[in-house]
């Protein structure tokens, strides 16, 4: 059974597809989490495990999602139903596609709020209102924004409007065109940011913290964090890569494309992360990650000079561009689902998907304000949304992709999904999905549910 032609068209070229795929992979996690993990878990010792995890866990699943999307050429629910029928498997597998669409909506709902804040901070940074702030002032500035539902909702709305416009133009005239222009700008701006941070920060200490191997600090937790980061940094388990793969010609070498995406994502993370570490270490601050790093630690580490203003503008502009690209690719599978499921035009489907995301994002906005104290088992709405997507739904989706290709699909159909190129790698790909990738995702799932910590504490008491 051959890969059918796409009724929606194709990417204009392999470099164009690569730009979009890199845009989907680059994001908040690459710049805000990798440097912290490297400084926390033994520098290049962590980097070594992280790269191995990218190759053994991330790459096989990335290629699997592209291959599935390319074969299905359909919205994900219908695509899995058709592929399951061809392999005489249960039609219940169509829920794997729908689960990916649901997780994309959930993640984009809070991702958009954070991206909106970064846009607000871009204007604050340009006005010189962020530099030379102590810890309490930096925290107060962020909480004043986050706890103001009117302003947070305005930035959230503005960001979603921009994303919707990009997606409404189509995957070639919208997403591809944006990626081809914005991705080179992101790398140029990141280089400028790193060089400027080195000039006013502590580059020697930052490079030492990242590149000096210390395996004694790695531990089992560092290995688990490396596997977790390798999976999430590539945007897997969200239906994004499957949808992007639906516009790929059968002749594209998937493994080679995957290696380029991994290389670009790693370079971006290390470059941006080293610059951030140079600033933090120069200010005698402990490296942090996530929202704390983006909206509190980074402003606190900025020097009170023109360089501080430039660094703020560069950082938040980079953050806005990468979140915009990632958000556009997150909205695409939801848009495709609405287009094909309900026979809507792309414009109406993109608007409908955006409205759904926007309404769910209100829950995140209110989680930092009026409903901050409304908690279930100690967590508010935003924390539950983040936990369910990052530690439960998305890893389960990735795990099911591994099971589906390595166990459910017959070898002949798996070869058809793989395509005509790089046939000699097909066996190694199925082996990687069956063992290292699947085992890695089981570890990620156990870690997210807190079971690994429970086992470790149980082991320590025996």
UniProtKB/TrEMBL annotation:
A Pfam family per the record: SNF
Localization in the cell: Membrane
Predominant cellular place of this UniProt entry's protein: membrane
Protein name as it appears in the record: NSS family neurotransmitter:Na+ symporter
InterPro entries associated with the record: Na/ntran_symport, SNS_sf, YocR/YhdH-like
Species per Swiss-Prot/TrEMBL record: Panacagrimonas perspica
Membrane topology: Multi-pass membrane protein
Recorded superkingdom: Bacteria
PANTHER family reported for this sequence: TRANSPORTER
Residues annotated as transmembrane: 41-63, 99-123, 153-171, 183-206, 226-248, 260-282, 302-326, 347-372, 384-406, 439-460
Keywords carried by this UniProt record: Membrane, Transmembrane, Transmembrane helix, Transport
Signal peptide positions (record): none
GO cellular component terms attached to this protein's record: membrane
Keyword Transport in annotation: yes
NCBIfam families: Na_transp
